[in-house]
User: What shape does this take?
Amino acid sequence: LNAVNVSMGHLQDLIAPVTDPSSDEHALQLICIRLFNLGATSLKLGLSGYYQASFQLIRDSLEVVNLLDLFRVDPTALKRWRYADDREHTKYFSPLEVRKALEKHPEFAGQNRQPLYKMYSNFATHATFKSFELYRLGDLAQCGPFFDESKLKAFLEDLALHLSHATLALSMQIDAPDSSELDGAQLRFIEALA
Assistant: This one.
């Protein structure tokens, strides 16, 4: 839970600098807000016993981190993403196309992001028979919230891992006009995660 709190605190640090609404930095801050809301909502749902919905939001963080990795290795991608029409978005920035682009980049050679994404899709996002596992307490399916220590533990571990990863990927790309304060926040974030 500490890693989640540290990540969400750092996301608030990243949102604080005032940026030009037409800038790439502002677009990154909007992604920052998405990650903060994703973390808060997922945490609320998971702690309330709604495991399927909480894991579904973690899958969203995988899409965000993949997009951020693409922005980092392709300096033109962020601007193209911001102005893409529906056709261009589907062709270049759908989750599948982003993963394909990353797999072609030397920095990510050998990484296969598909299995993790597929696991979250099958167990939390898509209406598959496997997804009903997140509604079970033992052998019995549950309607509404319920407490299951193993599901809660898995959820908290996954949220901490993936939200921290996405926050780090975002932090590496945000630059503020007066970056000394932000640099300090980034250093504190990395130290706290360590």
Q: What stands out?
A: The beta strands are 136-137, 140-141. The mean pLDDT is 93.
